[in-house]
Write a structure and sequence with these properties.
Blueprint: H1 27-39, E1 45-48, H2 58-68, E2 89-90, E3 97-99, E4 106-108, H3 123-138, E5 143-146, H4 157-174, E6 179-182, H5 188-193, E7 201-204, H6 213-220, H7 223-238, E8 247-248, H8 267-279, H9 301-304, H10 336-339, H11 346-359, H12 361-365, E9 367-370, E10 379-386, E11 389-396, E12 402-405, E13 410-411, E14 414-415, E15 421-425, E16 433-435, E17 438-441, E18 445-449
Parallel strand pairs: 1-5, 5-6, 6-7, 7-8
Antiparallel strand pairs: 2-4, 3-4, 9-10, 10-11, 11-18, 12-17, 13-14, 15-18, 16-17
Helix pairs in contact: 3-4, 6-7, 8-11
Length: 450
């Protein structure tokens, strides 16, 4: 979510693109954050809203005042008021437009009347964002999340791709290793096309949410369908870019939290394994804060953005109130202070998953092959290849322990019987075993073979 000044708690109605909202702190605080992150080898990307501004942004207020004072019958002139070209004004009411008070004019505002859409075809607007990017790069920012990229020109993939192509070229000329990830909330066939712009990543919506691939497989699907979906995704994205970096995620600030997706005796283990299914995908995997604890929150947006659950004590240091209007939420699992001392907690499972992801570069960077012959409704086996190195990931996506014969799997110069266990992710206390090519995988667990 953006950190710029805004009239709302969510900050997507930006009033100044080159400052920090006081609710988050000061510019000096931001500089300290950047420095502390960089000292730890952590890159920082920020949420950049190019689709619209706040109605309280000086650009819009100036343009609105100009139109209100325009003589009857006169046409707006960008030479008199440059900002009138920054937005999409019309004398006709259209879909997604709002009326400009005290005038006969309307303006595009696809999300909300107080968030007027910018005219990204305007060179003047693009020049503004060129300067905005310079401002944040000078502060040490490493890249950008681009909000609502499919609404730059609602309904036009080609025009949106052109905007992203311009932005990507402009950014990479300034900072070659800057990272750009776009939010294109659409089906996979649509957001795959956005890779033609040259940007690094698009969020992978097809695997996310309560109806996405991950949750669907765990609730009523086949484990093999997960492996097939990974290969299908890879084939789809590679049509449009040979340098794409997938951006898998499981939930975000617009979706119900995943702990509420499952019920019954297996719900905690399903919550855990779902995180592994996301975090072990190739690309730059994203984890929404609090998911590593199994936080709950659904319904209105404020509930999905509850404060981080550091402690069960609401008055404890570090706890905050959350957005106004948020409902009282009874958490299903313990706070961080509890889970970090429990070796079998969701937090410890996610922590171990990230550790293994970092330990094996094949996981994040590898090309996926689905091992159909040793997969079934309960077991999914995939091979990831990165350069000359390979790893095998064996997922048991059922509740009971399953035995799988890996002896037929070819693995470089090794046969399946010659493999070794390189890591395990267990949702319960039963251990995985491997002997003479036969692997026994406990329920809702993952074994990495090398």
């Amino acid at each position: 979510m953006p950190v710029m000044p805004s009239t709302t708690y969510h900050k997507y109605d930006v009033t100044d693109f080159c400052d920090i909202d006081p609710e988050y702190g000061t510019m000096d605080d931001f500089k300290d954050l950047i420095a502390a992150c960089h000292e730890r080898g952590i890159n920082v990307i920020i949420d950049l809203v190019m689709n619209h501004t706040s109605s309280q942004h000086e650009w819009f207020k100036t343009a609105a005042d100009y139109l209100k004072n325009l003589p009857e019958g006169a046409e707006p002139d960008a030479l008199e008021c440059p900002y009138v070209d920054y937005y999409n004004f019309s004398r006709k009411m259209q879909g997604g437009y709002s009326k400009l008070n005290d005038t006969d004019w309307y303006y595009e505002a696809q999300f909300w009347s107080e968030m007027p859409d910018l005219n990204l075809g305007s060179q003047a607007v693009r020049d503004e964002f060129d300067k905005i990017v310079d401002f944040w790069f000078d502060l040490g920012v490493d890249g950008f999340r681009l909000d609502a990229a499919k609404e730059y020109y609602s309904g036009s993939v080609d025009k949106n791709v052109e905007v992203l192509s311009w932005f990507n070229s402009m950014v990479k000329e300034k900072k070659e290793d800057a990272y750009i990830v776009a939010e294109v909330w659409a089906d996979q066939n649509t957001y795959a096309k956005y890779y033609e712009s040259g940007i690094d990543s698009c969020f992978d919506f097809s695997f996310a949410d309560s109806t996405g691939t991950i949750a669907a497989v765990l609730k009523n699907g086949s484990a093999s369908s997960y492996g097939k979906a990974l290969v299908s995704l890879q084939d789809n994205l590679s049509q449009y870019s040979d340098s794409y970096i997938d951006a898998p995620f499981y939930t975000n600030h617009d979706m119900a939290r995943s702990a509420g997706y499952y019920s019954g005796d297996d719900s905690e283990n399903q919550t855990k394994i779902a995180q592994a299914m996301n975090l072990l995908m190739s690309g730059s995997a994203f984890l929404y804060y609090g998911e590593e604890l199994g936080m709950k929150g659904s319904g209105k947006d404020e509930n999905k953005r509850a404060p981080m659950y550091w402690s069960e004590d609401a008055a404890s240091n570090g706890m905050c109130k959350g957005p106004a209007g948020m409902d009282a939420i009874k958490m299903k699992y313990g706070a961080l202070e509890t889970q970090e001392n429990d070796g079998n907690s969701i937090y410890q499972f996610v922590k171990q998953t990230i550790k293994l992801r970092n330990e094996y570069p094949e996981i994040a960077r590898g090309t996926v092959a689905f091992e159909k012959s040793v997969s079934d409704d309960k077991i999914c086996v995939i091979k990831k290849t990165y350069g000359d190195s390979e790893v095998l990931l064996v997922y048991n996506l059922a509740s009971e322990s399953v035995t799988v014969d890996l002896s037929s799997v070819t693995f470089g110069e090794k046969g399946g019987s010659d493999l070794e266990v390189g890591g395990v992710l267990l949702t319960d206390r039963e251990e995985a075993t491997f002997q003479n090519g036969t692997l026994t995988v406990p329920g809702y667990s993952v074994v990495i073979m090398k």
